[in-house]
Amino acid sequence: MREILETRNLTKRFGQQTAVDHLSLKIQENSIYGLLGPNGAGKSTVLKMIAGILHPSEGDILFRGHPWSRKDLGQIGSLIETPPVYQNLTAWENLKVRTTILGLPDTCIAPVLHIVELDNTGKKRAGHFSLGMKQRLGIALALLNDPKLLILDEPTNGLDPIGIQELRGLITSFPEKGITVILSSHILSEVVQTADHIGIMAGGVLGYSGRIQPGENLEGLFMEVVKENRRGGV
After folding, report:
1. Are 33 and 181 a contacting pair, CB within 8 Å?
2. Using 50, 70 and 90 to split pLDDT, how confident is the model at 234?
3. Under 8 Å CB-to-CB from 95, ≥6 apart: which residues?
């Protein structure tokens, strides 16, 4: 299986503070990679650099074997922080705004609404959606350009158990559709049920990266990495 994304010594500084410190990781195509770490570990900063929101201070990002460029954003979808949803518009109308911006045909809308199971919301405005439905609408927006890589930052934050289960089922369906997923979380148990590879960050450092092995003491590994590297991150 080939790699869709690789970072080499990826570093981000904000003034005198190093938020991400020489991070090197490899993410295989059609996999789900869980980026774990406590709040402030640097996870969101990593994802923002991959999504083109932040510029690295040092290091390289390779996408599908070549140096990352802004042209690659056409193959990358992301949901980072709050879903960019217009509360007074329906799900279809929210997607229509995005297709207009991206210059995509309206025929892209129905398939992604079906994927995230929002195709029966009709004229209901997004402001009346549950948090889980808003998250799924945010993912639909990220899927409009038919990405090969989908970046999700803490996608289950604030969801109830039913919403988490529904979102987990959606995320695990993506690799068979040819979509690689990177998701961040500070909740170990949630990532273990979703991802097949994990990376553990603390203090801006990637302390561990590898495939999830049956019977492995991931909680002990997580705590060990955090204790060794924890400091004030972003």
Report:
1. yes
2. very low
3. 108, 109, 112, 113, 140, 141, 144
User: Which residue range forms the structural domain that includes residue 66?
Assistant: 3-80+147-229
Q: 157, exposed or middle or buried, with CB in 10 Å at 0-12, 13-18, 19+? A: middle
- Residue 141 belongs to a domain: no
The CATH number covering residue 170 comes to 3.40.50.300
Q: Is residue 111 part of a domain?
A: no
Structure tokens at 226: 């955090």
Residue 131 placed within a domain: no
The number of distinct structural domains making up the chain is 1
pLDDT at 233 over 80: no
What does the pLDDT read at residue 230?
66
Q: Are 48 and 20 in contact (CB under 8 A)?
A: no
